[in-house]
Amino acid sequence: MSETSIDLQEFHWMMGLLQTIDVGLLVLDKDYRVCLWNSFMENHSGKQARTVQGHSLFELFPEIQEQWFRQKTRSVFMLNTQVYTNWEHRPFLFRFANYRPITGRSDFMFQNVSIIPLTSVHGEVNHIGVMVYDVTDVAVNRKALVSANQELERLSRTDRLTQLYNRGYWEECLVREFKRWQRSQQTPCALVMFDIDHFKRVNDTYGHQAGDEVIRITASALRQQLRETDIGGRYGGEEFGAILVGADADGAVIFADRLRADIEKKLVLHEGLEIRYTISLGVAPLSNDVTDTKEWIERADRSLYHSKEHGRNQVTLYFDALKSTTAES
Questions:
Q1: Rounded CA gap, 306 and 321, in Å?
Q2: Does the model's pTM come out above 0.70?
Q3: Choice among 88, 124, 172, 238 that is catalytic
């Protein structure tokens, strides 16, 4: 067998291999015209090799960001170096539909892409090879794992009954905001603590399920009043807390009284029963003489108990509570 026939036979084998591998393969010239288009690309693009050869890649697939792709491949042509793109940075080069039954949750094929220089016999790079790998299974599983971990993290910091932050995570937020305020002291911050008046009476009269409904309604009312930067949490039992970032004493009192008035107007319906209730609130703005978060909470609690001891269904600012306590002693 002659050397020529062997070369032709090897070339034939090579072309057969390129057509059957489960990897997209295309060759582009310096003008980004298609020179080679394997069966993977035919099957997933719906475009036959004979219809794409000689045509500009960007005309065939206008969804490809031309400026990005030219910049990405410049070093391949000029420096004879390989480049790579990962689905985590760019989900796909070609927006191919996903037909894999296992990963049917994805609308498109996630792709890793390798771009390699194809050197001529003269050592010049006039063509590049683009290999497209279908990594949808890996991507979908990875995203599902990330989503599951995020959900577990959310559940670990969320109170199940109210969907507010639980005490542990809320206290972490309190520490973080306290440290932030200590660093700058430019943005005011205030703490509001409140609880449901005569909650034991609600449980004893209407039952614990009715009490849970009252707690849920209270949490919902709190969420509706919170701004995007505020942080609400269930402190324990029927007690709640709200960290008001950017609120001074006056703003925090306005927030607290608006919440109090909203709760006072609510009518909770539970198994045909009508339940009305109120809340008492304490407000403690941050100031230079607050040494730590423990003292900050104690100030808000002292104000809260002042509200409860002086008639309930009211808001007490810490300074007012302190003056009143001093006068009574």
A1: 6
A2: no
A3: 238
